[in-house]
Amino acid sequence: MSNPVNAYPIGTLGIAWGEVERAAWLAQQVVQRSYLAEVVTPLTVMLLHRDSGLADVAELVEYGVLDYQAQGFAKYPLYAVRSRNWQQEHPTVLVTGGVHGYETSGVQGALQFIAQYFSHYSAHVNLLVLPCISPWGYETVNRWNPAAIDPNRSFVAASASAEAAAAMDVVQSHTSNLLVHIDLHETTDTDNSEFGPAKAARDGVAFEYHDIPDGFYLVGDSENPAPDFQRALIAAVSQVTHIAEADADGCLIGAPLEQCGVINYAKKALGLCGGMTEARFVTTTEVYPDSPSASPAQCNQAQVVTICKAIEFALQHSISK
Which of 58, 188, 197, 199 has the fewest CB atoms lying closer than 10 Å? Predict the structure, then answer.
């Protein structure tokens, strides 16, 4: 249903934003936290200091730079963490976080996985981790980039999102024997209070309100649903935090429940990050950080558990096609 109470202060219903409205929106965005302090520095400490142990098995790769100085912000170097001893015969696991920069546990969960488990799993698979694809969004706590473009609808050819384009480029060079792709996300209350209304205003349509699920859930690929894989991940995460229940219509965020805690999207058709590869096992996590029953530590841990279980399940089932 539409929710006129959440009418957005920029734009006119029925008219998509032009340059004036986009500029007005951008003028409201402010830096609220530091990508350098919270993402880059921890990566540097972990990977460039020999006594960390990670330096022997992982390397930090700068795969691009986003220059938003003209918009009044900064230059943002983009980093991936890659297995140092890359072996073509090993299966490859891709982990992406921070496609939506405001979804904190997607970024912090990826960093926690690198710190705690990268060394262990790098003995069995090639690992490529992009912990923060949208650093401007991380700093400004935003879903979009400065051009009011959603990177997670932009994983397409000739992408209008510099964030998505850079990520696709580096992933394309590491796709041999790609087995798993885990894309780390959150669903937050601000999806209804800010980002949903902003999107509707940007596109000149009425805002369609939906209930925010209280709990963790997964989004599989409708073209490659892998239900046993999704089920195993839900079982593992249920030991860490609660799983979202379907609403009265049997849905989560408007999509029919496929199984407990799992819905499916057409990821490639929608230009989602989770659709940019041909990996056999693909899922998108959705953590609910606003739940009174989940702490930030639980949210991060849910992301980590998903990655670990995904790798273990995929290795156990990669022989059978």
Answer: 199
Query: What's the predicted TM-score (pTM) here?
Result: 0.96
What pLDDT digit, counting tens, does each position of 138-156 carry? Answer: 999 999 999 999 999 999 9
End-to-end CA distance of the chain: 43
Alpha helical stretches, state H, the chain: 19-27, 35, 41-48, 104-121, 135-140, 162-172, 190, 196-203, 227-237, 267-270, 296-317
Token pair 């841990």 is found at: 301
The model's pLDDT over 217-261, given as tens digits with 9 standing for 90+, comes to: 999 999 999 999 999 999 999 999 999 999 999 999 999 999 999
Both tokens of 321, joined, read 């096609």
CA 77/CA 36 separation, integer angstroms: 9
Question: CA–CA separation, 262 vs 230, rounded Å?
Answer: 7
For 236-256, b where at least 16 C-beta lie within 10 A, e where not — what string?
bbbebbbbbebeeeeebbebe
In the chain, the domains with their CATH numbers are 32-190+207-317 (3.40.630.10)
With contact defined as beta carbons under 8 Å apart, do 130 and 113 qualify? no
Listing DSSP states for 244-296 in one string gives PPP-TTSEETTEE-SBTTEEEE-HHHHT-GGGSS--SEEEEEEB-TT-TT--H
Q: Which two tokens stand for residue 74?
A: 């900064």
